[in-house]
Write a structure and sequence with these properties.
This protein has 7 helices and 5 strands. With about 220 residues, it is of the alpha/beta class. The chain has a single domain, classed as Decaprenyl diphosphate synthase-like (Undecaprenyl pyrophosphate synthetase, 3-Layer(aba) Sandwich). α3 packs parallel to α4. The two termini are about 35 Å apart. Bound molecules: 3-methylbut-3-enyl trihydrogen diphosphate and magnesium ion. The site of 3-methylbut-3-enyl trihydrogen diphosphate has 12 residues, from α1 and α2.
Length: about 220
Amino acid sequence: MDGNGRWAQARGLPRLAGHRAGTENLRRVITASVEFGIQYLTIYAFSTENWGRPQDEVQGLLHIVADVIDRELDELNRQGVQLRHLGRLEKLPKNLRKKVLHAIEITKNNDRLILNIAFNYGGRDEIIYAVRRMIEDQVKPEEVTIEKVNQYLFTAGIPDPDLIIRTSGEMRTSNFLIWQAAYSEWYITPCYWPDFDKEEYRKALQAYENRDRRFGRLSFQQEGN
Ligand code: IPE
Ligand code: MG
């Protein structure tokens, strides 16, 4: 969800107004995802590096998340959305942590859309955390496989992303799902996140449909070809 700050700046508004607009857009994108029949949607909301932003912006973002959970939980639940969290909850303020755990608990039996919120998430942090727990569990060297590592990631049980959309034109991964994205298709649009509406979303999905995914092999070797 990149470009909130620039969206606000372009309107002479404070950055937090951009984050609020971005959050409202998230609501629209979730609804569109349900309509498009998307099964898994992962939102990169706050990285392990975002703590380094000015304190008022960090605090503002934490408040926005708490507000969103308060305002949207019932509706998300009604739409059949199951909330999951990717990242480390320990570092969040206690009341926010409680809210997140409550939202996860309330929605755990929903299965229309699995919505992963990456908050205090970093791909490198995720891999370090996985390695530590594998060592704690005394996993043997020969047992370390792709499948084993998958089991220790925050995304355990969730398929690798087919498509990663990055708004606001930046051409980098920014520590997002660096393991899981090995063969994901990327779609980068100059559109700022608050303006990424259903039509922009549709364009991204259409672009994805036209991709030829080879996973390192040749077209004719792929299933269905
Ligand atoms: C939102 O956009 C991303 C978050 C960390 C919530 P930015 O805040 O990165 O917006 P830009 O890049 O300054 O435009
Ligand atoms: Mg940014």
